[in-house]
Amino acid sequence: MNAIYALIIVIGFLPFAIILYKRNKVKRMKKFGVKGVGTVRDVPFGSYRHLNKVLIEYTVKENGTVITKEITVAGLPYQVGDNLPLYYDKQNPHKMALDSGSGFTIMLLFTLLLAIFIIAACFMINYSIETGQM
Known about the structure:
Layout: H1 2-32, E1 34-42, E2 51-59, E3 66-74, E4 83-88, E5 96-98, H2 103-130
Antiparallel strand pairs: 1-2, 1-4, 2-3, 4-5
């Protein structure tokens, strides 16, 4: 039974770990990358409730190359012509990250609370089983 609880807790912390990884990736890109601005070129028909593809275009400052890249976003927060702050890798300009501002803070807090709730639920279920209430 303890193995099942451990698995549930690991799964509970998985969203937190993913958000932490993505936040650190953006932080590294901000520290070592080049700041730029991307322009939304195409917003294909999508849904406000699902993941959608958006086509952005940005110019590499070092050589003037224009890069067009398809990114995945939740919902449809952008319109054609919107300017998006971004960072790209100087050695490989196709590697880029949008400047998310403080958006990760709320997601980190939410996923941490979710993980804590899952841990508490495991303890309450275990307590109920041990005391014969379940």
